[in-house]
Design brief:
The chain is α/β, with parallel strands linked by helices. It contains ten helices and twelve strands. The longest helix has 30 residues. The mean pLDDT is about 90.
């Protein structure tokens, strides 16, 4: 059997090492490798995986977290809220989808006041986090910072292009869902969604949650440390989502073993 991570372009995805180590520790004879699929080939490749008897599961990354919805059945409540998938598991002749990204995000901000939340960036992960958090924390006030227009947002949510001073003063949780600070592109490395002037206005008990996990230290993390603002990067989210994904995959491996044993 084999597993994969599907996306385009793929640049040394962290999931490959995590999954390989997991399979080795569990003594599962399962391969794990990246599948860099161009958009024009996506539909054909997914259909090939559905009929491939050796295919078990795959992590799904950009730009296919929404595109994959056409080919799967959603398995759980959180994934339904997120309307975005980052894990598919094959059960018999069907693909089932999960969103473990938002599970990792929820774990990263647990035991924190979430009355006023600013979410910076509304790409695939940003939207998934918003949709899920809005369902789980319906009384929270959200401000979405994005240049996108005509977004379908729920009540107690405001869309803005820039961060206002009065908003940052009231914020309990700031979530960076943009690539600013990441090494995805050189131009992102020396940038931050929040300037020092913003950070100085934040409440002492507020928190900055940054989904960026590479590099470990960013301009935002360094400024938060200087100003003693609680900061969590995306490493915990990434680790938690991978752990959740692998527990789902392991469950299906055991289910398959059970089906084989019952058939004998």
């Amino acid at each position: 059997m084999f597993c994969s991570i599907i996306g385009h372009p793929l640049k040394k995805p962290r999931s490959v090492k995590l999954w390989k180590k997991f399979f080795k520790d569990k003594k599962f004879k399962i391969e794990m490798y990246p599948l860099d699929i161009k958009k024009k080939d996506f539909k054909r490749k997914i259909k090939c995986l559905i009929i491939d008897k050796n295919f078990l599961a795959s992590a799904i990354t950009m730009p296919y977290k929404k595109e994959i919805l056409k080919y799967i059945k959603i398995k759980d409540r959180i994934s339904l809220y997120a309307n975005s998938i980052n894990l598919i598991v094959k059960e018999k002749n069907s693909l089932y989808g999960y969103n473990t990204d938002v599970y990792g995000a929820l774990k990263s901000v647990q035991n924190l006041n979430k009355k006023n939340i600013i979410l910076f960036g509304f790409g695939g992960t940003g939207e998934a986090i918003y949709r899920t958090f809005k369902k789980i924390f319906p009384k929270a006030n959200f401000i979405i910072i994005s240049s996108k227009k005509n977004l379908k947002l729920e009540n107690r949510t405001i869309l803005k292009k820039k961060i206002d001073e009065k908003d940052i003063r009231l914020t309990d949780l700031f979530i960076n869902c943009s690539p600013l600070g990441s090494n995805l592109k050189k131009k992102f490395l020396d940038k931050s969604p929040l300037g020092v002037s913003h950070l100085k206005k934040m409440k002492k008990k507020s928190m900055v949650f940054d989904i960026v996990y590479s590099p470990k230290k960013t301009l935002l993390s360094r400024n938060c440390k200087k100003l003693k603002i609680k900061y969590v990067n995306g490493i915990k989210m990434n680790t938690m989502q991978a752990s959740k994904a692998l527990s789902i995959v392991e469950k299906e491996i055991n289910n398959q073993k059970g089906r084989v044993e019952r058939a004998l």
